[in-house]
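Lecture notes, part 5. Sequence design as translation. It can be helpful to think of inverse folding as translation between two languages: the language of shapes and the language of residues. The source text, in structure tokens, appears below.
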């Protein structure tokens, strides 16, 4: 998708502070962090939202969670806990039309989230 900010980050057209990258996903720090540790993990395939997960592309979601686990261990937030957030659709708070998962850690999380 030519106007998608995350697709541009994947193509290195927009810089990001990358944490992890492989053939399926990219992880990078959020530019407006809401916690001391706040990064995003996105599929390289343009999937608009969780509403667009199909049998054909579902494997990337499990891979994203494996990557989150790996990064959480490297950043040592697995020891104290962290939150994984996926916003789906306008009322769900999704502001970028490319499925992504926020990972927030290194502070106490409140409930309800907002």
């Amino acid at each position: 998708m030519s106007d998608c900010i995350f697709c541009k980050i994947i193509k290195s057209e927009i810089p990001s502070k990358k944490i992890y990258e492989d053939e399926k996903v990219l992880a990078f720090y959020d530019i407006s962090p809401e916690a001391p540790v706040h990064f995003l993990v996105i599929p390289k395939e343009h999937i608009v939202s969780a509403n667009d997960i199909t049998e054909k592309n579902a494997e990337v979601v499990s891979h994203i969670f494996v990557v989150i686990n790996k990064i959480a261990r490297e950043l040592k937030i697995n020891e104290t806990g962290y939150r994984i957030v996926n916003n789906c659709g306008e009322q769900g708070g999704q502001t970028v039309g490319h499925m992504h998962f926020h990972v927030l850690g290194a502070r106490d999380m409140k409930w309800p989230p907002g």
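The translated text above is only one of many valid answers, since several sequences can fold into similar shapes. The longest strand covers residues 37-43.
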